[in-house]
Write a structure and sequence with these properties.
The protein is an alpha+beta fold. It has helices at about 15-25, 50-60, 90-110, 130-145; strands spanning about 10-15, 45-50, 70-80, 85, 115-120, 130, 155-160, 175-180, 185-190. The chain has four helices and nine strands, in the order βαβαββαββαβββ.
């Protein structure tokens, strides 16, 4: 009853400039990410209200050997989260825990192992390869759909990076991430403006 979010949010998406400009000109659409390690399942990913974090992601992605980003770029989106699996909401967290328990039992009965969250490399202390989380969220969405409940988006907060200062509860890359399942939730795409100095 309370899963529908009443307001629009701004989301920012880091990508290659050529693709970003094509999206802005409605020549192509943002594509769903469908990796087994996606943090919030399959969908189009945005940084909620964080242009800087989207730009940082695009720049860091450019440096990877396998990157398709030649010129880091950021586009903005006006998003209606619709019926949101919001992992800042206790009810949604309970659904996710139940989905984990059901998935674990189903895989055990089939003689299969649960996927795991793991680091991508030696310096990945945030375990960015989230195959377990992705599988559990996807299973939760399937369980809900079996009950006639369809989620449009997934939202979660992540504590990521190094401590902001000694013994801090905050980290350098903290963010709220959005995974948009229903593309109709993306109401508009825009080129973010720089702040005007008076």
């Amino acid at each position: 009853m309370y899963s529908s979010k009443p307001a629009y949010v701004f989301g920012f998406h880091g990508l290659d400039e050529a693709i970003g400009r094509a999206v802005l000109n409605n020549e192509t659409q943002l594509k769903h990410s469908k990796n087994s390690y996606d943090w919030l399942g399959h969908g189009v990913y945005f940084w909620e209200n964080s242009f800087e974090r989207a730009r940082q992601y695009a720049e860091e992605s450019q440096a990877r050997k396998d990157s398709t980003i030649q010129n880091p770029f950021v586009i903005g989106a006006i998003i209606d989260l619709g019926n949101c699996l919001d992992l800042l909401d206790k009810k949604c967290l309970d659904l996710l825990r139940n989905a984990y328990n059901e998935l674990e039992l189903t895989l055990k009965e089939a003689g299969e192992e649960l996927p795991t969250n793991a680091p991508f490399g030696a310096n990945d202390f945030d375990f960015k390869k989230r195959e377990l989380d992705c599988a559990v969220i996807r299973y939760a969405l399937e369980m809900a759909a079996d009950e006639g409940i369809y989620f449009d988006s997934v939202r979660a907060a992540f504590w990521e990076g190094e401590e902001l200062y000694p013994n801090a509860g905050f980290k350098t890359h903290n963010h709220i991430q959005l995974c948009i399942i229903n593309p109709d939730c993306i109401k508009g795409i825009f080129l973010p403006r720089e702040k005007q100095v008076k």
